Each structure stands twice: as structure tokens, then as C-alpha cells.
Amino acid sequence: MRKIKKGDDVIVLSGRDRGKRGTVLKIVGDEHLLVEGANRVKKHQRPNPMKGVTGGIIDKEMPLHVSKVAVFNPGTKKGDRIGIKVLEDGRRVRYVKSNGEVVDV
Prior knowledge:
- The structure is a single chain.
- By secondary structure, the protein is mainly beta.
- It contains no helices and ten strands.
- The strands form three sheets. The protein has a six-stranded antiparallel β-sheet, with no helix packed on it.
- A hairpin with a 5-residue loop joins strand 9 and strand 10.
């Protein structure tokens, strides 16, 4: 079970985008993820008339390492660590380590 999933609201902890918030758009590999609005770069794209792609300079998100983001806790307005625990009925759920609140039900 992953601690950070697609659709989570996260905050960037380090780098040039420190403090930015966004949602996880995609998980890339085992240790990287795309965050909306964070780690944006300019890419020079060649035109491809066969695919209908126009050339130019485009903005796109690049993957961030999982260790550089934390799940945003709206109660404390800060990033928090996530843990995994097993409930009495055998389900595995994610919870916020600072206050024990369950993230996904």
C-alpha cells in the first residue's frame, strides 16, 4: 500500500517550489510523482504535422521524488507524515501520524 496516492493534496517540502500545494496527478515508477503546478519546466517541442502537434515552447510538470512531498493536513495547515495501520476488521488504512486521523475511509 502506498502512503501517497493519486488525487492526494500534497505540499512540496524542498527545492525551488518549496511551500507550493497541489494534487498528485500521476505516480511515475516507484519513487516519483507528478504534482499539479510544481516542478514546471519549459520544453522546446518540435512540430509534428502527422500528429497535429504545433511546435513551440510548452510548460509541463516534471516528476518529483516522493521524499520531497508530504500530505497536506487541512487541520494544521501543514504537511504531515502518513502511516499505515490495520483495523479490527482487517482493513489497511492510511492515517496522519500527528493526530491519528484516518485519511481514507
